Amino acid sequence: MCSENAHLSQSLFQTLYLQKPLWYSKMATQQIRSYSHDDDNKMAEHVSDASLEEAATTRTKRQPPELVRDLSSEERQRLEKALVRRIDFRLLPMIILMYIMNYLDRNNIAAARLAGLQDPPSKGGLGLTSTQYLTALSILFVGYLLMQIPSNLFLNKIGKPALYLPTVMIVWGIISAATAGAQSYGGLIAIRFFLGFVEAAYFSGCLFFLSSWYTRSELGFRTALLFSGSLISGAFSGLISAGITNGLDGAKGLRAWRWLFIIEGVITIFIAFFAYFALPNFPRTTSWLTESERQLAIWRLDEDIGEDDWMDSKQQTFFHGMKLAFQDIKMWILMVILFGFVASGTVTNLFPTVVATLGYSNVISLLLTVPPYVLAVITSFCNAWHADRTGERYFHITLPLYFAITADIIAATTTSIGPRYFAMMLMPAGVYTGYVVALGWISNTLPRPPAKRAAALAAINAVSNCSSIYASYMYPESAGPRYIVAMSVNCIMAFMAICMATLLRFILVRLNKKLDRGEPVKGANAAVEAVPGEASRRGFRFVL
């Protein structure tokens, strides 16, 4: 019996510990200890049950592909590190650069406001009222909402992100540049709506793209790298806008706000052409992988979850994935969490306007928007890296929100320049530091099948951005400098996100305990539902 005990412990150790991150190792150690202290009768019963289950499920067990199975442990680690580095090099720089332009083209209207957009037509502006400007800002998110789910399901169906995403980028670059030709309020509204409609494909598509290449222990930091594009664009937007406002206002008879849209739109189109040659597709549809790299890329995702990922377009259905996602309570909780994040961070949609209430010139105000975003990039990277290193999500998501609440309270209760700019420094970092980890938590919690994950990512991203439709109206110029209503709503939304994240953690803890006992868990993945003990033996657990 002692030899059976030792054999079972060694087998469990090899399954759960080898080639797994730190949090897998801790879980394996705890389970080995629990087995090692069972009495002989329980162990005998367990071994007997395990043998029967193994005999019943032999045909359902998945084996590594041949080229992976023949590798030694050292060769596997070396090749996997080389593969991840290669994918990082081909994928991350380009999608980050693309997202920088995506965010710039979406939010440059905030900088255009300080560059003469609202001036009377006689001075080269459109003569917009404050309400009309806020409507132009908000209408983008109506189009953004409508296209999220169809776009992600279409991307999952065709399996060609290297073709789809650059094409979408060219279209939104053209629309963004066309904003410079707007001559009326109605024309601006139409352009902004279609810009949001096309841009909707990108961010949720990239989240799905990343989850199709990286394991759960790698995804958080890569998601932070992707989202750093929006934070970097927030910093660059202030610098670019300051330069254009100061140097090109009136050049060739055009106001600075028109040059802003032309320059950034043309840069977007230029970058999109390079993306065709840089981006990979999915592991099964990327032509420049060797066969051993392809098999390893596919298997490590299978090994991470306990089920294969994207296989071919014939297996991907539009409505089945949406149905699976909508039937899972975890998706709805994640949706509320992400909604709370985005709603508490809507101040960034009009950040130049809020910073301008400090009383400095337009150019200085634009430059003052840079440091808060630089801080947010640093804190987001550090938080996401630590979340991946430890395998912990909940505290990495919720703790930064307390800083966001603190910043909103300071901004709403004082008019002194020093404390207010301190609060503005914390606003982007307080929201986005935890937000990037929450984005990764979606794919960690809803991993399979890929159609479900694609639908969930799109639905959550779409609904979370609904707050941007109404939030702009909370920042009229008359409400400055304290914006009491807006800051109060931001605090409430941040607290709501904390509460819902707490609820989700309790649910996932309960589900993990069921997996520990080998019980079926509906909504975990197909492997768990089909073979209750198999996914548990392979080490699948929800990330907390």
From TrEMBL:
<feature type="transmembrane region" description="Helical">
    <location>
        <begin position="394"/>
        <end position="415"/>
    </location>
</feature>
<feature type="transmembrane region" description="Helical">
    <location>
        <begin position="363"/>
        <end position="382"/>
    </location>
</feature>
<feature type="transmembrane region" description="Helical">
    <location>
        <begin position="189"/>
        <end position="211"/>
    </location>
</feature>
<keyword id="KW-0472">Membrane</keyword>
<feature type="transmembrane region" description="Helical">
    <location>
        <begin position="256"/>
        <end position="279"/>
    </location>
</feature>
<protein>
    <recommendedName>
        <fullName>Major facilitator superfamily (MFS) profile domain-containing protein</fullName>
    </recommendedName>
</protein>
<keyword id="KW-1133">Transmembrane helix</keyword>
<dbReference type="InterPro" id="IPR020846">
    <property type="entry name" value="MFS_dom"/>
</dbReference>
<feature type="transmembrane region" description="Helical">
    <location>
        <begin position="332"/>
        <end position="351"/>
    </location>
</feature>
<keyword id="KW-0812">Transmembrane</keyword>
<keyword id="KW-0813">Transport</keyword>
<feature type="transmembrane region" description="Helical">
    <location>
        <begin position="133"/>
        <end position="155"/>
    </location>
</feature>
<dbReference type="InterPro" id="IPR011701">
    <property type="entry name" value="MFS"/>
</dbReference>
<feature type="domain" description="Major facilitator superfamily (MFS) profile">
    <location>
        <begin position="91"/>
        <end position="514"/>
    </location>
</feature>
<feature type="transmembrane region" description="Helical">
    <location>
        <begin position="454"/>
        <end position="471"/>
    </location>
</feature>
<dbReference type="InterPro" id="IPR036259">
    <property type="entry name" value="MFS_trans_sf"/>
</dbReference>
<feature type="compositionally biased region" description="Basic and acidic residues">
    <location>
        <begin position="63"/>
        <end position="72"/>
    </location>
</feature>
<feature type="transmembrane region" description="Helical">
    <location>
        <begin position="223"/>
        <end position="244"/>
    </location>
</feature>
<feature type="transmembrane region" description="Helical">
    <location>
        <begin position="421"/>
        <end position="442"/>
    </location>
</feature>
<feature type="region of interest" description="Disordered">
    <location>
        <begin position="49"/>
        <end position="72"/>
    </location>
</feature>
<feature type="transmembrane region" description="Helical">
    <location>
        <begin position="162"/>
        <end position="183"/>
    </location>
</feature>
<feature type="transmembrane region" description="Helical">
    <location>
        <begin position="483"/>
        <end position="508"/>
    </location>
</feature>
<feature type="transmembrane region" description="Helical">
    <location>
        <begin position="87"/>
        <end position="104"/>
    </location>
</feature>
<dbReference type="Pfam" id="PF07690">
    <property type="entry name" value="MFS_1"/>
</dbReference>
